[in-house]
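Forwarding the complex inputs:
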Amino acid sequence: MTISPPPVWKLEDIVDLEVLVAGEIGGPTASGSLAGRSRREVFRTWLEERRRVDFPDGVSPGREAVSFVRLVAAVLFTLGLGVGHAAVWSFFHGAANPGVTPEPINVPIFFVVCVLLPLVVTFVGFGAAAGLRWLRLPLFLRGAVASALVGVVRRGLRRADLARPVEQRLNLDSAIGAVRQRLASRKGALSTAVLVAMQLLGLGYAVGLSGSIALDRQFRSSVFGWQTTEAGMTPDRVFAAVRTIAMPWSGFVQPASPTLEQVGGTRFVKYADPAALPPDAAFAWSNFLLWSAVVYVLAPRLLLTLIGSLRWRLALRREDFGDLRFEALGRALCGGGGFRSYGSGAPGDADGSPPAAASVAMEAGNCLLLWPAELASSGRLECLREWLVSRMGWRATEVVEEGTSMTRCPVGCDRVFLVRESFMPATAEVLGNVRALRREVGPAATILVGLLGKPDEDPLGALPRGEDVEVWTKKLRALGDPRLGVLAIRDPR
Amino acid sequence: MNRIPAIPTFAFVGQPNEGKTTVMATLAEDDRAAIGPVPGTTRTSRDYPVVVGGETIAVFYDTPGFEQAAATLEWFRRHAESPTALSDALAEFESREGFHAEREIFRPLAEGAAALYVADASRPVREVDRQEIEILRLAGVRRIGVLNSKESDDRYRDEWRRVMARDFNHVHEFNGHTASFRDRMRLLEAARAVLPEWGAAMDRCVRVLREDWENRLREVSAAFVGELKELMALRKRATLADSDADPAATTTARETLMDAVRHREKDLRRRLRGVFRHSGEHWELGELLEGDLFSEEVWRLLGLKRWQLAAAGALVGAILGGLVDAHTAFTSLGVAAMLGSVAGGVTAWLSAGRAVDVNIPGLRLGGLRLPGGRLGGRQVEASISAQSNLPWIVLDRAWLYVDLCTRWAHGKREDALAKVDGKHGAMSEWSRDEREVIARLLGLARKPGADPDKLEHASRTARDLFLAKLRDATTG
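Prediction (whole assembly, two chains):
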């Protein structure tokens, strides 16, 4: 392998790697030239090699995904552009509608709706980008909104779910779980992607808003005014507010905002004739609105988009490919002792063994063996310990009977081996217990569910049925946990 | 205590994938229920009424498996003292997320259904099973344990019996995959014994089902006899092009007849399925029933053995000869019958593998038959040979099909006819007297001018024979 891998991972690389890892793992294996290199580098080299073989025409799933993302980005930006333009059009065109009593464009309302509100949203975006929790909606509000939405969605999904055949339901849940596993692996990147997408919408809006105001000023003669029912809102105060708002551009734009006289002169009273308003004030007001849009809508959006892009790059740089599904590839490429790889992930191995959920090849080390009390027998436990060492390189340092509460994963042990019987169904309760176990041991620990077959003369029982293992695999995958795997326990003899 | 419905109502409950739907479908003879190897196929509780003659005599509820047994048991333990624990639980779980299955299970039970707790005796008892059993006990429902074996291995049967014996009114073995009518009746009779409040209703249910079954068997017997008569009277003709030895016309007549026989068999199967309430042919039939009726393999395995066929042929010959003797007021001293018997036997022996005869039919003028002459051109006529094995093979296949329909539990969906494959047909196993009843019918049915009274008598005798054999095979 002589390819010098590019230094950074891009979206298309990640997608290609996931697609290839989900399929058959092949291509180059351990090589002396890869020794001592990081998994990112090794994977990248392998990826480039596989791409040459699998996608000789250069059209890889990753590239297609990127094209799709670009299309979505273009659609979002265009949508934002349309919304921005529509906002200006509805205010400006509505004011000139001959069918109603003519009124000037109400500057404060326009400012609040089209500039201030998007600015608040932008600040929320900054908060999200900076991880500031206080900028989010209050919890009670979020909870109410979420429960209302989630309730409706869940009811709808459940209804649709009940109508689907069980195999279809299982496969769909499993597929969604597989996607969730991949998203859960890179939550940072995902939230950043959402952030960037939202910025594109916002950026489109800002460009549409600013451009539409500029065009209107260039080609139409709109009349601007302000009206209020608030007695305390005097022209002096309005002028002071306007001058303050216009401070950022007052140094280089003239007129940056209307003068006090122009403000006083454009106070509008209902049913008055807009033609009576001073015409020179219109230019000053339109200048004020245009620069407000540029400074308070467009500029923050641009900045946020830039931050989003930087965060996206950082997220991709942090990708360490440490999840369970990358283990087999990692060990195949890097080699190393103390590892046992088994199970092709496909039913019907040559030796008749049932499928393993993921091709599992884990680094040797200690693990916690979680074991249902009713299966306990010293002979079986010893056999299982031996099996773990011989087949996985895992040493069960602690054995916990199921039902015992674990407040933390034991020190030096970031793996849990949970024993289950394949012929018993993976009920909601069982899956709930797995979720609870995840909460107890933390997100970084690897949990492997080992499935025993029906008891027979062998202490480890009969070979689990392939169909049972497959159902368990899909059920567990549906949980969307990237560090949760399942495999069939069988006698190494 | 919950109110008890007037009609015996049962809810099948238990772990997911224990075969509840299979047992239910078999017991209710309803194959609409979705059955599959994946746990959680049943998601909602659904009733399957057993309707006979427009009247509902029992109702079976199929329910999903317990999904939250431990949490549910905990709830019941906390409310063990409440006399309305079951309806309270239903109300509680209506509003609790993640307890959809439990809601569906408790709904029919709260309406007074008795619980049929289905367990797979091919696996060991686990803690979750004990929890479910205790839930039913604490819920105060009437309950019967049903040991279903998903696999042939039932070495845990005794263990299950021990566990269930403590908390169930009765434990019954019932394999949803292989249960016959007899097994179904036994389960219902056992339920009647332990649910005295439904005594009269259950008695009636069992009686009506037995009557219904008897009617079905009569229908099948009549269908068999009708089919044999139609088959033997079947004639197909083709016009000869120029010469008497036109192979194309011969082939056409023969194949048209064979197609007609195949079509008739298909139609018969459809009718038989309808009799036994199988909504569709949802099973794999295997080569013996699926293979072509005229294939070598089918002919090798089904029908009569050669000597049996010769004996049947001799009988048919004797009957026909006997008719000649009768015309001579038996002055021929039975010589015609004897000659007919010998000729029939020898012909049957020699033509054992032949299915269809193709002849140039004679023109009939009343009782007079003019060989070969026919107005509007000359034709060849194909018919089933008098001594052919074909009607016996058709009968054998129909018999096997009925066997499948009666034994094939409505809950079963796969691994079809493994047991039937390789088995010889039933006809060859019947006694000589029984075969003679059929042979007599075949002989008379083939003869166009046969005495209707004799034919009717032969039909009735054959129907009675079929009915007796069907009763013997299905109800013991």
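The longest helix of chain B spans residues 199-233.
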